[in-house]
């Protein structure tokens, strides 16, 4: 008995559009990354957050070198990592929108350990020490070691899929 080859549809050559189209189908958790320099907080919504290592505890995320937060992230010693809940769709949108006043009302936050902005009412947060910034095309992959955090927030996670923020379904 021979196996039937899979239907490969219509393959496309590699391109930015192909990559975006494929990853629209990949559901990802939603995080906000924050940092501060000279009393100026910055932050952005990220779906590229990854747990890298348990010993030592390391995470990674990607950021475009053209992003408004990049100049601060590029020099920050510490960053904040915030896992958003489904009740924070508006907050995710604010931190994803170019030109938005991300830390103005109604965003609730406080200065946390190492001077990092820590957002209110998130499912979990970490403050991490940046250990590397790795060039990756038009982005940088930031590797950061966990210093302190709190996983005790209440709620269900916010996810990003098909270009939209969503809650999980049972």
From TrEMBL:
<protein>
    <submittedName>
        <fullName>Flavin reductase family protein</fullName>
        <ecNumber>1.5.1.-</ecNumber>
    </submittedName>
</protein>
<dbReference type="InterPro" id="IPR002563">
    <property type="entry name" value="Flavin_Rdtase-like_dom"/>
</dbReference>
<dbReference type="InterPro" id="IPR012349">
    <property type="entry name" value="Split_barrel_FMN-bd"/>
</dbReference>
<keyword id="KW-0560">Oxidoreductase</keyword>
<dbReference type="GO" id="GO:0016491">
    <property type="term" value="F:oxidoreductase activity"/>
</dbReference>
<dbReference type="Pfam" id="PF01613">
    <property type="entry name" value="Flavin_Reduct"/>
</dbReference>
<dbReference type="InterPro" id="IPR050268">
    <property type="entry name" value="NADH-dep_flavin_reductase"/>
</dbReference>
<feature type="domain" description="Flavin reductase like">
    <location>
        <begin position="23"/>
        <end position="167"/>
    </location>
</feature>
